Amino acid sequence: MYANGPFASGIRSQNGRSTDAADYQDVPRAVAVMPKAYAAGMYLDRHFHPRAQLLYATAGLMMASAEDGTWVVPEGHALWIPPRLPHAVATHGAVAMCSAYLDPAAVAAFPGSCRVILVSPLLAAALAALGEEPVLYDEADRGGHLAALVLDEIGRAPETPLALPLPRDARLRRVCLGLIEDPACEDDLDAWADRAGASRRTLTRGFRAETGLSFGDWRARARVIRALALAADGRPPGAVAAAVGYRSAQALRATVGRALGAEGAPASRGEHRRVRPRAAEAAP
């Protein structure tokens, strides 16, 4: 479960830098950067890192899951993962990523839960440049300045709505897992309440209290997140829409706009859209 779990390979990238996450956990530097590429369909089982991690998708799309939620990480975005938090990661399409492993002491004031952030051009450039520095960079020279810039930019980065929070209540969680399993299911709130053994009122209040979303908004976001993964896998738009319960790709696009907002939708290659920070906190 530690580091990159059973999939840790220990191989090295073209620039000679290790691609084994375990090699970066005890580096005596505030920030240690590891670029790595994964084939489509790769799944990294539940694991954790002693350090905090910024999992940045430079190409492709990843989905991560933990006990309290699911997050989608498209190109140009990154997942903030607190130290020692167990999480699993799946790739959809070929993925190029850059992990920054961060000393817990350097990020003590950072959020204690996962969140997807928009990676600014400055943060992207700083991560790429730090990846070209020696792992044991001179803290008083360029490497140290880049590391400080990375930490500053992560702290300033806006959170995006590319998260699907999971409630702790067993009845609500049963409903959520059912919707994730079958996003095209057309059952309404009353049917799900009967299936969960709870009243409509309990489900309505519970969703708001534990996820910050209504039942309808949570289901729409679950469908959008699944649709993003299917699209990254190469499925045609019509098939993606049908798989998540929509009669047309146009209807799905409208839901994406409502669920994520015009600014929250993943940017196309090379684009960056700013997302307004959210007050509420939203996991290789």
What features would you highlight for this structure?
Arc Repressor Mutant, subunit A, single chain, 284 residues, 8 strands, disordered C terminus, alpha+beta, 34% helix, Jelly Rolls
Explain the overall architecture:
With 284 residues, this protein is α+β, with helices and mostly antiparallel strands. The chain folds into 2 domains: 5-156, Regulatory protein AraC (Jelly Rolls); 167-260, Homeodomain-like (Arc Repressor Mutant, subunit A), CATH 1.10.10.60. It is built from 8 helices and 8 strands, in the order E-E-E-E-E-E-E-H-H-E-H-H-H-H-H-H. Strands 1, 2, 3, 4, 5, 6, 7 and 8 form an 8-stranded antiparallel sheet that branches. A hairpin with a 2-residue loop joins strand 3 (52-66) and strand 4. Helix 3 crosses helix 4 and helix 6 (215-232) packs across helix 8 (249-260). The longest helix is centred in the last third of the chain and has 18 residues, at 215-232. It is elongated. The model is unreliable at 4-10 and 267-284 (pLDDT under 50).
CATH class of the largest domain: Mainly Beta
Q: Compute the separation of the termini in Å.
A: 11 Å
Instruction: Count up the helices.
Output: 8
Q: What string, H for helix and E for strand, traces the elements in order?
A: EEEEEEEHHEHHHHHH
- Biggest sheet layout: 8 strands, antiparallel
* Alpha carbon gyration radius: 19 Å
* Structural class by SSE content: alpha+beta
CATH structural architecture of the largest domain = Sandwich
Q: How is the quaternary structure best described? A: single chain
Number of domains: 2
Number of DSSP E strands: 8
Q: State the CATH superfamily name of the largest domain.
A: Regulatory protein AraC
